Amino acid sequence: MDEYTRRISSAAGVKELGRGGAAIVGRATGLDWKTICRGIRELEEQEISPRAKGQLRRIRKQGGGRKSLRLQDPTLLSDLDALIEPKVRGDPMSGIRWTCKSTQKLAKELHQKGHKLSHMTVAQELRDQKYSLQGNRKTDEGSSRPDPNEQFLHINKTVTAFQQRGDPVISVDTKKKELIGNYKNNGKEWLPQGKPTDVKVYDFVDKKLGKAIPYGVYDITKNKGFFSVGIDHDIAEFAVETIRRWWNGIRLQAYPTATSLYITTDGGGSNSSRNRLWKKELQKLVDEINLSIHVSHYPPGTSK
C-alpha cells in the first residue's frame, strides 16, 4: 500500500486530502464525495449518539427516516373528520368518542379523495383521536328501547364530572380466557428442524390447572391498568375482589381525598346489570371502603 492510499484509508486521511481524497473513496464505495464529507463532519461533531446499554447504536440522525403520514398528507385529518362527522358521537374534547363507520369504508372513501392509505392506518388514526367503533344489534322487538347515543352521552357526561372533582373513573372487563397447560397456540417459533414442540391433542380443561381468567381494571384518568388472574370461574366475587385490590393499592397515592368511584363496564358476564351477586359484592365493598360507587353499563351491541 503506497503512502497516498494509506492516507485516504481513514476519515482523518480523507479530510486531510480534501475533496480529492473524498472523490477517490467515493469511486471505491459508490457514494457521492459530498456524502462522505458530511459523514466525516457528523463523526467529528459527535452527532451520532453513543450506544446505550441494551440498545442498538443510532446510525441515522434524529428525525431521519420516513415522515409520518400526517406530515406527508396535511389534508388527511381534515378529510377524515369530514367523512365521519355525520356519524360521529361525543364531544371532541372528551375522553370517549365513537363512530359507526368501518375502517374499510373510511379508507375507500379517502382513496376517492386522493389519499393513499390502508384501513389499518385509518384505524390507528381513529385510535389516536380517541374513537371507538359502535356496532349494531337486533334489539328492536316492537317496544321502544333507550337510544344508545343518549346512553353514551350520559356516560361521557358522568365521566367528565367525576374527573373534574378528582374522583376515580375506571373501566372493568373480563378478558379472553386461556387454558393453562401444554396446549397448542397460534403462531410459530424458531426451533431445530424436525423438532417441533409437542402439545396436547385435545383442548380439554386440565382439572388440576384450570384456566386463566384475567379480569382487568383500567383507570381512565391515570391511563393505567391493573388485573388479576383467576383459575376457577368468572364470577362477581372475583370481579369485585380485583377492584378492591386495585383500590387498596392506589388510593393513598392517586386519590387520597376521593369520596366516590365511577365504574363503566359491558352489560354481560360477571359484572352484568342483572347479576344480583355483582350488586351484593359491590355493596360489601362500599361498606368496607366507605366510598360511594356508581356503575354504568354500555348499551347492548357495543364494545369499549
Name its key features.
3 domains; 11 helices; Nucleotidyltransferase, domain 5; 9 strands; 304 residues
What does this structure look like?
The protein is an alpha/beta fold and 304 residues long. It folds into 3 domains: 3-45, no CATH class; 69-133; 158-184 and 199-297, Nucleotidyltransferase, domain 5, CATH 3.30.420. Helix content is 39%, strand content 14%. The strands form 2 sheets. Strands 4, 5, 6, 7, 8 and 9 form a 6-stranded mixed beta sheet that branches. Strands 1-2-3 form a 3-stranded mixed beta sheet. The longest helix has 19 residues, at 236-254. It is extended and about 85 Å long.
Cα Rg: 29 Å
What would you say the CATH architecture of the largest domain is? 2-Layer Sandwich
- Number of separate domains: 3
Helix and strand content put the structural class at: alpha/beta
**Tally of helical segments:** 11
* Number of separate strands: 9
- What's the helix-strand series? HHHHHHEEHHEHEEEEHEHE
Please tell me what the overall shape is: extended
Q: What portion of residues belong to β-strands?
A: 5-15%
Quick one: CATH class of the largest domain? Answer: Alpha Beta
Quick description:
This protein is an alpha/beta fold and 304 residues long. The chain is 39% helix and 14% strand. The protein contains 11 helices and 9 strands.
Task: Lay out the secondary structure.
Blueprint: H1 3-7, H2 11-17, H3 19-29, H4 33-45, H5 69-72, H6 76-84, E1 88-89, E2 97-99, H7 103-112, H8 119-128, E3 131-133, H9 148-165, E4 169-174, E5 178-179, E6 211-219, E7 224-230, H10 236-254, E8 260-265, H11 276-289, E9 292-297
Parallel strand pairs: 2-3, 4-8, 8-9
Antiparallel strand pairs: 1-2, 4-6, 5-6, 6-7
